[in-house]
Design a protein that fits this description.
The chain is an all-alpha fold. It contains eight helices and no strands. It is globular, with a radius of gyration of 25 Å.
């Protein structure tokens, strides 16, 4: 009980300081142990409702809002567990939030019969197993994977919002984003392969390794794991470098150019 309360409180604080994804993970850990823990359900509902306001795809907005509504219903259900006696004081607020979301969905024509599991997960069992793992670990680059584990979330659909370029300007933002996505997807599959696929025996055959008594695990799969994490963490460095470069190109450089063209006060001629 105490652990569930601590994790739920931690999730609430993470959400309050602007880390909704980390908060989502903490609540999911609570709900995986107790799917009727009301405050975790309510917090998850509020988190997804907020998340729906931060995405730009109308389809994702509707599905995230629908998931939030379902979680509000679960939190308000009589079978949910409240570890304290403040249910009555909180329930009315949760009900108002739930009704507002339901009204928005109804007003925007949300299809209640929409099947979130209508797509195939692949052409063979290997691909389906890989995609099920990505769904289960919530590793798809897709906002819906934070709320759904059905095939509707089994794509790396995340990309940049609509934006415009001059006719003589190349689409630099999508180009950089494509590279970052490709690195992430490759690192993700390398991690999956290290965990689930057996390395061929010949990879480490006739490799002389000395036991130094330090508990080292020397195997091909450990190198795959290491490489996957190195690739994943390198994305953050490259992403920061891209942001700095683009800020310099689009913000700082025009300012410096304009400043260089402006006449300097000291260069003004003084008449005699």
């Amino acid at each position: 009980m105490l652990v569930r309360q601590i994790r739920t409180n931690l999730a609430n604080r993470l959400h309050a300081i602007g880390r909704p994804v980390a908060a989502n993970e903490e609540r999911l850990r609570v709900l995986s142990c107790d799917s009727l823990f009301a405050k975790a359900l309510a917090g998850q509902a509020q988190g997804l409702a907020f998340y729906a306001t931060q995405v730009f795809d109308n389809g994702n907005i509707a599905l995230l809002a629908a998931a939030a509504r379902s979680l509000f219903d679960a939190a308000l259900d009589k079978t949910s567990f409240w570890e304290s006696d403040d249910r009555d004081s909180i329930a009315s607020k949760l009900q108002n939030e739930r009704d507002r979301i339901a009204d928005d969905l109804r007003r925007n024509g949300y299809d209640e019969s929409y099947d979130c599991d209508q797509w195939s997960l692949g052409n063979n069992e290997d691909e389906r197993a890989y995609r099920r793992w990505c769904l289960r670990e919530r590793l798809f680059l897709n906002p819906l994977n934070d709320a759904y584990m059905q095939s509707v979330a089994a794509t790396d659909a995340l990309h940049l919002p609509s934006h415009a370029y001059r006719i003589d300007e190349s689409p630099r933002f999508p180009a950089y984003f494509n590279l970052l996505k490709q690195e992430y997807v490759s690192a993700r599959y390398r991690l999956y392969r290290a965990i689930y696929e057996e390395s061929p025996e010949f990879v480490m055959r006739d490799v002389l390794l000395l036991d130094c008594g330090e508990g080292q695990i020397l195997a091909h799969y450990t190198e795959e794991l290491r490489a996957s994490f190195l690739s994943a963490y390198a994305i953050f460095d490259k992403g920061r470098a891209v942001v700095v470069m683009l800020l310099h190109k689009t913000v700082l450089e025009p300012v410096l150019t304009a400043a260089a063209r402006r006449p300097h006060r000291d260069s003004a001629q003084v008449g005699g």
